[in-house]
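Hey, can you fold this one?
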Amino acid sequence: MKHYMKELLILIVIFVISSASFNWVMNPYGIFNSPEIEKINKLKPEFFTHLRLAKAWAVYKHKPDGIILGTSRSEFGLDPNHPGWNVKSVYNLGLSDANMYEALRYFQHAHTIKPQKQVVLGVDFFMFNIFASNHADFEESNLAMNPNFSSANKFLTLISIDTIWSSIKTLFKQTEVEFAYLSNGQLHWTNYIKTVRKQGGHRQLFLVSEEQQMRDTWFNSFVHPKTGKSTLKYFRRFLEIAYRDHVDLRIFISPSHARLWEALYSVGLWPQFEQWKREMVRINAEQAKKYGKTPFPLWDFSGYNSFTTEEVPPLGDTNTEMKWYWEASHYKKILGDLVLDRIFSEHSMANDFGKLLKSKNIEQQLAKIRTEQQHYRVSVDH
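Sure. Predicted structure:
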């Protein structure tokens, strides 16, 4: 019996060491300094499926002093290497389907690892949905400000069964990856065109994203109708930290396509969308006054302008490539560069792209977008 137990123990040790070694070599989440080998582990398809784990450790690995936060819109569109940054190292910490709580926690995570000097936060209406839960792969213990956090925690992934499966998938998916991430955290801006063509072209993807918007956000609210609790408290806390610690924070509302705003309107959420903007302006002004600072710039790129009203190719056209958009929700890097041009230098190639929202002009800007909305509908009808 003792001999049997000894052999079993040896086999277990061999299995654990072999698995850990295999996982380290394959490095499916990119969190170790393993060598990248063409057709073996260079592509990281499991980075996307374990995004919050991978990016949490990427921040610990790179220790940037500037970050990009937001949803996949920020991941697709915002370049950490844009010349407007005033810091040495920037990481795109955008998270697909992120809510405002997750954005806050990842800001705190990066800020704990290394004090952030400059932060760009892309906010989207659906991020504030009080009914939305945290993403399945969100784990507080992976974040540096958590009492249970330890730099040694990442080594536990080496002996995880989940990581073994991810390593196997990485090995066998080296020919093509739909969501390819650069080392700076940004989604590769050329890779997605293959998906657009496979899915039937831009128009087909527009329809899918618009239907998803109407289906998933029709019950969107940043205030719970029964308890009165609001997700705006996470936005407020974000600003408190940034004002207190002298972070250069730039905030913007994403420039999704006009068709997405029409979808939002069609499910009756336009009044809430406008009120959400009012509340962010109000909270920004309140926190600035509290800390004796000038309000952080809050840019609005939503609405109807020469970029967001780009013509969409007809259904079935898989060859025409749009200049500014992938589909209704996600804009391309070329448009993201213009967003960063605007928020870093207030320069824009078009006067109608991006408006600073302030207490004194918020109602005027909301009314202006309503007027532009009517003009857009007339132009589309004709």
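The chain is about 45% helix and 5% strand. Let me know if you want another pass with a different chain boundary.
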